[in-house]
Amino acid sequence: MTLPDAKARARIQGDFDATLVIEAAAGTGKTTELIARIVALLRSGRTTLDRVLAVTFTDKAAGEMKLRLRTELERAREGASGLEHDRLTDALRLLEVAQISTIHSFCADILREWPVEARIDPLFDLAAGEAAAALFDQAFESWFQRELAAPGEGVRRALRRRPRGRDRVNPRQALRDAAWALSEHRDFDAPWAREPFDRSAELSKVIDRLADVASFASRARNPEDWIAKGLLEVARFTEELQRRESIRGRDEDGLEAALCELSKQKFWGWRGGGKWFGEGLEKTAVLARRDEAKQVLDAFVVRAEADLAARLREELPCARKCSAASRICSSTSSRIPTRCRRSSCSCSRRAIPMRPIGPARGLPQASCSWSAIRSSPYIGSAARTSRSTSE
Question: How far is it, in rounded angstroms, from Cα 179 to Cα 320?
Answer without folding.
Answer: 11
